[in-house]
Amino acid sequence: MSAAAAATTQPANAAGERPGSGMASTVALATLLLGPIIAVNGLAFLMPVFNLLLLSFRESLGGSTIGEAYTLANWSSTLFDSYYIELIVQSILTSLMITALTLVASYPIALYLHRSKGRWRTFLLVLVISPLLTSAVVRTYGWIAILADDGLINNMLKAFGVEAMRLIFNKVGVVIGLTEILMPYMILALLAGFGRLDPRVEEAAETLGASPWKVFWRIVVPLTMPGVALGCLLSFVLAVSSFITPKLLGGGRVFLLATEIYDQAIVTLNWPLAATLSMIVLVIFGAALVLYSRLLRAVI
Amino acid sequence: MKTAIFLSGALLLATTALPAHAQQTVTLLAYSGLFQERYTKAVIEPFMAAHPDIKVEYFPQPGSAAMLGVLRAQKAAQQTDVAIMDVSVAKTGTDEGLFDKVDESVTKNYADLYPNAKFEGVAGVGVTFDNLVLIYNTDAIKTAPTSWNALKDPALKGKVAMMSAPDIVGIGTTIIMDRMNGGKDFIQNINAGMNAMAEVAPNVQTWEPKPEVYPTVINGQVSLGVGWNARSQVNADKSDGKMKVALPQEGTILQVNTINLVKGGPSSDAARKFVDYALSPQAQSAFSAAMYYAPTNSAVKLAPDVANRTVIGAMDKVIPVDWIALSTVRDRITQDWRRKVIPLSR
């Protein structure tokens, strides 16, 4: 109560001290407007992350007890253990693959949506967003029904005399499931970044004799790069951090950072190790963000 | 400002005045789902009927780890009085100073508890015994399997489901296999069990049956699975004969849920009364009849049709597991599984 009161009165005081200065009042106004979100982010995001960082240096005693002492053991056992290095590399590669597949599957849809008009466009947009109204768990179970040994696809293959394949409880299942789950995010991000794509530029290129293929590669793709970069960033971050779908479709065979964090936090109760792995995920996100801003600067 | 003072005064009055009139509330932290449903009917409701001045509030969590998370988070101001959780997690909680000791001073039933229900270094005591069993789909498997080796049957390729290590189903099955294949002390060396699990691996369709292993067996997605007796028995009853339960001749391992008094819980006297009741023959036999967990109180006499469906008649075949010693090597066993067992099931 008192902390909240102090937080709201402080900017007002700051504004009152220097009424004449225009610069100062702008700063004060900005502080006033940004204050609430800074407070919320500080309390609900930065503080927990800082606690997580501290936890990653806490000693992990046998039998999942968290010790009082601080140690580098969690970090050294993670960064110098072949199993965890492999886990980190595999997580990044799998997420990159899922991101690429999501992009390939979503790009044509987003392009068509961008060019459609009126009610038809609204209808298609609702169709694209509608999967987000269902929980990822439910959609993942849907994929189990489709991909299972006696599911839709394998039954069709059998009807054509093709031998059934294991499409689920392995990496194939995880990649298929996550690609579908991430598609709405990718399509929305692409649409948001397609603002510069002007049909008149395409028409001009055609008038000057460019083939449709050339128009696509030289005009459409470069102009839509901001959307592609945004969509890829979003999909990659979501792919690295998703654990429900890999848990349900991986069959305990696919080891990714997110599932390992879940196991360490919930099953073996090694919270310091789980915190260490979480910080590594955060570092990967940071790297992805840096890459994204570099890419954006290059294309704009 | 005046209103603020008035409001805080009113709040102060309300919080101090209420408990004098209202009943005491015991907050029980325990498993969600079927456990909550059956435990409420068999134990909590009769307890509240006998103690009208005490109300038991059930705070459900999906697993022991989540319960430990709650207790760790509330350590500064506990809102919970009693926790029912797996013994290995209870050991961690005890080490972190979260629990008060349950002994003769809390309950006179302490003396009647089986030795397997008391643990060095754990504040709480055993309140239920459960055990690993085989569950099978009756359309696919006509005769009940009698040995854990059924998991290796080449005819069941891709038709087995069980949780892998670090889950205790995976670790427990490895311990049973180790004992069957001549292993002496799995804490030191569990290679015999690991080699046997490597033979099971090619049969396994999923190491992560979701939401649980029971529906995957009932609906025929797999033919054979490893499950826990209590949930297996209840699911078998609900399956229209599609799923049956088998306790193999080589024996089984126990999973023990302990009941723990939370240190600094808000209503400790009422909490002690509840712990005493939960360990009484009356509560223990009622819950066994409701969900086929075996009682931890040796004074309980179960009806034969209930006893036969719990592990109580086969206690001589139980392979002793020191879960507390095991927790120190659980990580190593998990790593072994990932290198030697799971890759063989692709």
Protein model, in words:
The complex is a heterodimer of chains A (300) and B (346). Chain A has 300 residues and is mainly alpha-helical. Chain A folds into two domains: 2-56, no CATH class; 74-299, MetI-like fold (Orthogonal Bundle). Chain A has helices at 2-17, 22-56, 73-79, 82-115, 118-129, 136-147, 152-159, 171-192, 199-207, 212-241, 244-250, 257-267, 271-299, and strands at 58-60, 66-70. In chain A, strands 1-2 form a two-stranded antiparallel ribbon. In chain A, strand 1 and strand 2 form a beta hairpin. The radius of gyration of chain A is 25 Å and the shape is globular. By secondary structure, chain B is of the alpha/beta class. Chain B folds into two domains: 22-129 and 255-313, D-Maltodextrin-Binding Protein, domain 2; 130-254 and 319-345, 3-Layer(aba) Sandwich (D-Maltodextrin-Binding Protein, domain 2). Chain B has helices at residues 2-21, 34-50, 64-73, 87-95, 168-180, 191-200, 213-218, 229-238, 268-278, 281-291, 304-307, 323-341; strands at 24-31, 54-61, 82-86, 99-100, 125-137, 160-161, 204-206, 224-228, 243-246, 254-262. In chain B, strands 1, 2, 3, 4, 5, 6, 7, 8, 9 and 10 form a ten-stranded mixed β-sheet that branches. In chain B, helix 2 (34-50) links the parallel strand 1 and strand 2 (54-61). The longest helix of chain B has 20 residues, at 2-21. In chain B, 50% of the residues are buried. Chain A binds chain B through residues 61-66, 83, 148-149, 166, 169-170, 247-248, 250-253, 255, 263, 265-270, and chain B through 63, 65-66, 68, 88-89, 91-92, 95-96, 158, 163-164, 166-167, 205-208, 210, 221, 324, 327-328, 330-331, 334-335, 338, 342, 345-346.
